[in-house]
Amino acid sequence: MRASDADRERAHGFLSAAMSTGVLATDEYTDRAANAMVAVTLADLDALCADLPLGQIGGALAASTPTEIRVSSSGAEPLRKAKALLSSAEVGGGSVVADSLKVSAVLASVELDLRDVEFTAPVLTIKVRAVLGSVHIVVPPDVTVEIHGSSVVGSFNAAAAGRGAPGAPRVVIRGSAFMGGVDVERVARGQYIGPTLPR
Q1: In this predicted structure, what is the pLDDT of residue 198?
Q2: Are 167 and 191 in contact (CB under 8 A)?
Q3: Which range is least confidently modeled, 39-48, 59-68, 122-131?
Q4: CA torsion sign, 67 to 68 to 69 to 70?
């Protein structure tokens, strides 16, 4: 029998609850959640959840509530690059982001605000490069964030890394800073973070 969107959503909630209780590791959750999003039949979804202990994760499943961020499909062309050279760039608002995003700032600055963007995949991978420049990434409190970065005569701030709410997208940030900086911070939606960058 073919699975509906509601069936896929229920399976995703089950997997999220399993991750939040430690039954599934983050990487395994990511793989299963991605498969759940594209599952065609109920049997496909059952195979992803069959080995999970309902008794152990039932409380987390019952307590989970829908998050403000939803992975959805938009008719707009997803954004895949944000680059600035001797200038500045800003991404935010209702922008649609693909499953991967390349961000580079060379003698420049880039502001990436993910609080109100439209995610098109369960996992967003951001590849960052800052050379004599700065990249500032703002994430909402409910997403899971992984940060893998290095710096040479600069900084790569990983303080915002951590688990988010069940069912919310996962943001994986990788890259480097050379005589520059990459800063990632969690900020609540609607909270003012200063003037926007000049366009």
Answers
A1: 40
A2: no
A3: 59-68
A4: positive
* 35 and 97 belong to one structural domain: no
95 shares its domain with 175: yes
Contact call for residues 74 and 96 (beta carbons, < 8 A): yes
83 and 178, same structural domain?
yes
Q: Where are the alpha helices (DSSP H) in the chain?
A: 5-20, 26-37, 42-49, 54-63
For the chain, the domain total comes to 2
Which range among 20-24, 74-78, 149-153 has the greatest average pLDDT? 149-153
- What residues make up the domain containing 39? 5-63
One-letter amino acid for residue 120 of the chain: T
Flag whether 85 is in a domain.
yes
49: in domain? yes
| E strand residue ranges, the chain | 79-85, 88-91, 96-106, 109-113, 118-119, 123-131, 134-139, 144-152, 155-156, 170-178, 181-186
Residue 70, in any domain of the structure: no
Distance CA 81, CA 126 (A): 9
172 located within any domain: yes
Return the structure tokens found at 25. Answer: 């590791």
Task: Kindly state the average pLDDT of the residues 96-110.
Answer: 95
Beta bridge partners of 13: none
If asked whether residues 85 and 160 sit together in one domain, one would say: yes
Model pTM greater than 0.90? no
